[in-house]
Amino acid sequence: xxxxxxxxxxxxxxxxxxxxxxxxxxxxxxxxxxxxxxxxxxxxxxxxxxxxxxxxxxxxxxxxxxxxxxxxxxxxxxxxxxxxxxxxxxxxxxxxxxxxxxxxxxxxxxxxxxxxxxxxxxxxxxxxxxxxxxxxxxxxxxxxxxxx
Length: 148
What we know:
- It is a single chain.
- By secondary structure, the protein is an all-alpha fold.
- The protein has two domains: 2-111, no CATH class; 116-148, no CATH class.
- 60% of the residues lie in helices and 0% in strands.
- The protein has seven helices and no strands.
- The protein is globular.
């Protein structure tokens, strides 16, 4: 579990970095904690598959990324580049790993109210028949420091 969390933390830091253009980052969106909560809600088999993905990335980086270091020990810029290379690889397995990293974290990232506000959505679902609409008040997010 520890290696899976290390791999997850390193991945979200690389994919959703601290930035100066106003998009919420991995800290603002509490990505690691929210992802772990999501994992614990999954059936055991799916949880293990996701954990295995992040363990593979964490430990596999010693072979897949030049430098012979675990993924979490690489500089953020190297991790960003590694995920980009995985997703653009000619090897199907590496493309699948890169796309799985991006897809599994995007679900959590895009569900955060600060991200929804940043992209201009006021509800997570535009369907009027949605029984549980969650309204995002942009003014409240600004006061919380999670939107500009």
